[in-house]
Specification:
This protein has about 200 residues and is of the alpha+beta class. It has 4 helices and 10 strands. The strands form 3 sheets. Strands 2, 4, 5, 7, 8 and 9 form a 6-stranded antiparallel beta sheet that branches. Strands 1-10 form a two-stranded antiparallel ribbon. Strands 3-6 form a two-stranded antiparallel sheet.
Amino acid sequence: ILAGVYQVAQQGFTQNAPLELLFSVQEEIGLLGLKAFDTGKLKSSYGYALDGDGPMGVVFHAGSTHQHIDMVVQGTPAHAGINAQQGLNAIQVLAHTLAQLPQGRLDDCTTLNLGTLKGWAANNVVAEWASVKGELRSRSPESLAAVQAQVNTVIQATQTQYPEAKMGKAPDPMGEKPFIEVPRYAKKAVSFARFKIKPDAPL
């Protein structure tokens, strides 16, 4: 990008419209840079996002809704060598849930991926905490809603099978703040919404 702008600048911009360049940060974790940017500072009425895979000249005219999945399970801690039978392993409960969730490419416009799995416990302690983070993407509101419903059905079934476990979002899994139970069990925050531009729309 900079090399191209430099080349145009050497020509004095005599054959080009004025250019504004915006380099954003923290895009891979939810477009945080763009969300924080004051678009009132731009003079341009439209722009292009130079992103995506494919050969030079390919234009993406549609994008998916991106939804974070952030779920925490609280079990019952116990000493693994003394009273393990009194504990409930949060890692086991979470693993049971994840094994039943749809993952990967679900249809031609929907994907679900779980990328981070954590547990908090020493090796001689039945784990009290476990968490998973992932994302759900879809260009179809119907598919998005269907997968959301499927995920929550699985989570509710797990809650029924393990009534002693708590499933939701904890602000501090190390226990300094109280556990917070969330409706629909898993916190799901929309990072950005889908869009669609007509393929024949003028550039």
